[in-house]
């Protein structure tokens, strides 16, 4: 079965695009959501996090101490790399397990991940889609969705590849500006994938 990766910068609209594919009957694996769940459910990952960042990475009830982890990794790329090196393999395992549950009648699946290219996981997909949107629109949409400042949004963007870098690695583009129809673009790609 064809595995399609889909990514885009923060606020580009990748989740919105995935919802369109879901309405077309395509199963979507939301890697970032799964990663959050795995942080509190995957024993191998939990042990790795504790031994790397300390037992205080978790509260006694098993919940993640986000503040502790963020305090370590936010300003330190080396520590962030260590966290990613623990999380990404766990997500790969979860994706494989999930893909094995998909009936063979399903024509293709989508894997949505913010860091699809940065993590290298795009190489495990057959083709990859990049959702692109103008910077001002991304900032505006994120400000409306989350209670965050423009500086916080730009700091998050700073940790991702630029669109120029991502374009080089993408097979297909979806433009999420205010002049093009997301539904039409997603439907055209859906038709394309059905013919693969
Ligand atoms: P993140 O990486 O931060 O999770 P994302 O790329 O998944 O972001 P979405 O959550 O899909 O982006 O979109 C960001 C916000 O912009 C959401 O509130 C969404 O409803 C809105 N949005 C996205 N695309 C459009 C659009 N074409 N028209 C109107 N609103 C949109």
Describe the structure in your own words.
By secondary structure, the protein is an alpha/beta fold. It has two domains: 1-27 and 108-196, Rossmann fold (3-Layer(aba) Sandwich); 35-101, 3-Layer(aba) Sandwich (Rossmann fold). Helix content is 52%, strand content 13%. The protein is built from nine helices and five strands. It has helices spanning 14-23, 31-38, 43-53, 66-73, 77-100, 135-145, 150-158, 163-169, 182-194, and strands spanning 2-8, 28-30, 108-112, 127-132, 172-175. A five-stranded parallel beta sheet has the order 2-3-1-4-5, with helices on both faces. α2 packs across α5 and α3 (43-53) packs antiparallel against α5. The chain starts with a strand and ends with a helix. The model has no long low-confidence stretch (mean pLDDT 95). The structure holds adenosine-5'-triphosphate. Adenosine-5'-triphosphate (ATP) is lined by residues 8, 10-16, 114, 141, 145, 176, 182.
Topology at a glance:
Layout: E1 2-8, H1 14-23, E2 28-30, H2 31-38, H3 43-53, H4 66-73, H5 77-100, E3 108-112, E4 127-132, H6 135-145, H7 150-158, H8 163-169, E5 172-175, H9 182-194
Parallel strand pairs: 1-3, 1-4, 2-3, 4-5
Helix pairs in contact: 2-5, 3-5
The structure holds adenosine-5'-triphosphate (ATP).
